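Archive record
______________

***
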Amino acid sequence: MTVYFIGAGPGAADLITVRGQRILARARVCLYAGSLVPGNLLATCPPGARLVDTADLTLDDIVAAMTDAHAEGHDVARLCSGDPAVFSAVAEQARRLDAAGVPYEIVPGVPSYAAAAAALRRELTVPTVGQTVILTRAQARSTPMPAGEDLAELGRSRATLVLHLAVAHTRQIAETLVPHYGADCPAAVVANASRPDEIVLRGTLGDIADQVAAAGVRRTAVIVVGAVLAAEGFPDSYLYSPARDRRAKRPDPTGD
């Protein structure tokens, strides 16, 4: 039997992948974070499935639930909000499953930053404006950031920044980034991306913290900072330019 770490998407139940949905529909045990995974997504689970809300469980409790299910001969769907590749705590769970000899697979999902960009109707990589996106978080009551990854250091790049798990510290973040980006740098906050209660705030580093406070946003939000949020008049991508030679890599239909 296998544990499947499934990216449940950013919030909307229909943003789970087809593969993830199919696995969820057959798994006899499902672990999920009740505060992050939409309840209507659980309706996909088969009748009689064991549903385990992990919101108040420790890592030991979560791993025990998975290993116990494996011993009973059940596949396990471990739902992760967004995509398991980013801020999902999959690494430490997988490490323990490896030690226990329990097989697992990872099923990608729609990340929250992608849903935030969609809500903002913006591409995060715009020709000549920004081609680098940094995914990071704020340092607060959490695991310390590695050396060289503090926000001020990252801000020196002036790349597009996407911050997860950070909205409670928006004012401090803005103050840290203003010396590098300027107070007039575009900034946005998207809370509950893709959900019915989605909140989209657009502004600058100079005023975004006030907007967050006024809107009462405290969690489940993504902060985006960078010139791409207001990019206009940029050149078209060379990818579709008529000046691009499209013959060079065109396959030979004869096979010669």
About this structure: The longest helix spans residues 59-71. Residues 121 and 229 are 9 Å apart (CA to CA).
